[in-house]
Design a protein that fits this description.
Strand content: 5-15%
Distance between the termini: 37 Å
Oligomer: single chain
Strand order of the largest sheet: 6-5-2-7-1-8
Number of helices: 20
Length: 486
């Protein structure tokens, strides 16, 4: 993979920027962490070379001065809201993140349950967290928000919330997902700190949009495509332009809420700390792009992939048709379309020729291979075997799967009344067994890593199980918004 982003530079200057922001305040900085703590694969796709775990590495750099507060919305606990990318509930995701951070010796001090209105399941959740020797707190909907500043910044507003005790000068406020109350938690803490004569401050760390790239830069447009379901729109930060006569990019929600947030901060801190939403951010991504053309190309590809994904989501009833229409507008602005993807054309041509469902994949050398369903293998299984054979220079007529391994698997599937087509997870298990007696399979499976960042397209909507495996292999897979042929 050609790199267009200098991650080492980013880790260095991003850590330095956070330290500078801490130094602006006498005692403590509450730093709101937006986006994903781990596995930020969107960033790594649009910025080739970006480490998807960069935020954690920055936290490790600052861990002696930092502690973590996790926020979780009480309604998400009650409704057992699920994170689509991991398939687990938000409360379990939070516990997973705590355990990972502890393994990295990053201090998690507390969990705050936000927007509490007496929802069910909260006491049970608190017991789980406190059994992990982590303090829990309750925060309530803010009375008077957003218009009544006097009430918001009073004992009836933020003062009603429990004060979260912290001991370090950098307090990172994060969450297992969006709408978890991170900002409200930061502001509530600032209210209590200043009431106790502690001059704490606030800042925000989000990767996108990138403030010092152009409004219509493909990186920023890819972010807009990624958040089309939230109706996020990138805009010039008018507050920044007026204050500094300098263009900076932000997005509509931050711009809409800034006057409210500015008034609240001034009321709490008794001075005018920030003149624009951009001022609040600590984001050095734009300074670390090392090859503009590589990054632009990667971002355009991501927008097209987001378009295909949105069409599938409409087909599955997750979105209305407004989401793909919004992304299509972005594609038109950049003069890109589905035909720009080699795998898209190869997939549909093969499907038309064979009159069967097909998956096409572009290897790192630019060669496109395909996989179609056979009597015993799914499309994804055939594609995977064809790919690792090509990468290992194994001839087409050489079989990797031993009949002595396949037959008992197929017999058992028949006995259970299951479809005898082997899915990708079953093929991976069978190959793992076969490699014990066939050394060439060891090499072939080692080459599996070369599939990372490869583009692929399917002529039908893949099953959740096979889609998850292909994504775990870090293959950039998209699907036509069509159900599998029977």
């Amino acid at each position: 993979m050609k790199k267009g982003f200098d991650n080492e530079k980013y880790l260095k200057i991003q850590s330095e920027e956070i330290k500078k922001r801490i130094a602006l305040f006498d005692s403590k900085l509450y730093l709101e962490f937006g986006g994903k703590l781990f596995d930020d694969f969107h960033a790594s796709r649009v910025l080739p070379g970006f480490d998807p775990n960069s935020k954690i590495k920055i936290l490790q750099e600052l861990k002696d001065d930092a502690e973590i507060i996790f926020c979780i919305n009480a309604s998400d606990i009650e409704k057992k809201k699920v994170r689509a990318d991991y398939g687990i509930t938000y409360d379990m995701e939070l516990i997973r993140l705590i355990n990972i951070l502890r393994d990295l010796n990053i201090y998690v001090s507390s969990v705050v349950i936000t927007l509490y209105k007496g929802q069910d399941g909260i006491d049970k959740f608190r017991s789980k967290i406190e059994d992990m020797n982590i303090k829990t707190y309750i925060h309530y909907p803010t009375l008077g928000y957003p218009a009544d500043i006097e009430t918001i910044v009073s004992e009836k507003g933020y003062g009603k919330n429990e004060f979260i005790k912290t001991t370090r000068k950098l307090v990172v406020v994060t969450a297992p997902g969006p709408s978890s109350g991170k900002l409200a938690t930061c502001l509530s803490q600032l209210y209590h700190e200043h009431k106790n004569n502690v001059k704490a401050g606030y800042a925000k760390y989000e990767t996108f949009p990138v403030w010092n790239l152009a409004l219509k830069h493909p990186v920023n447009m890819a972010y807009e495509a990624a958040t089309a379901d939230l109706h996020d729109i990138n805009m010039i930060d008018s507050f920044h332009l007026e204050a500094y006569n300098e263009k900076a990019v932000n997005y509509n929600r931050d711009l809409q809420t800034f006057p409210i947030l500015k008034n609240i901060l001034e009321k709490i801190m008794k001075n005018d700390v920030y003149k624009s939403p951009t001022d609040m951010g600590v984001n050095m991504v734009g300074h670390c792009i090392s090859d503009e053309n590589i990054v632009k190309d990667a971002s355009k590809k991501e927008i097209i992939r987001r378009y295909f994904n949105s069409l599938v989501d409409v087909k599955m009833g997750k979105y209305d048709c407004g989401v793909p229409k919004s992304i299509k507008v972005l594609m038109n602005e950049l003069k890109i379309n589905a035909n720009d993807r080699k795998v898209y054309n190869a997939c549909l041509e093969k499907q038309k020729k064979e009159n069967k469902d097909v998956i096409a994949l572009e290897l790192p050398n630019g060669k496109v291979i395909t996989g179609k369903e056979t009597d015993i293998l799914s499309c994804a299984s055939t594609l995977f075997i064809n790919a690792i054979k090509e990468l290992t220079n194994i001839p087409d007529d050489v079989y990797l799967l031993s009949p002595s391994v396949l037959e008992p698997i197929l017999d058992l599937k028949k006995q259970l009344g299951n479809n005898t087509i082997l899915q990708l997870d079953e093929v991976l298990i069978a190959l793992s067994i076969c490699k014990v007696t066939n050394p060439i399979i060891v090499t072939a499976l080692d080459n599996m890593r070369k599939l990372e960042n490869c583009d692929a397209h399917a002529s039908y909507i893949l099953s959740n199980e096979e889609l998850k495996i292909l994504k775990n292999l870090k293959i950039n897979i998209t699907c036509e918004a069509m159900f599998k042929k029977i």
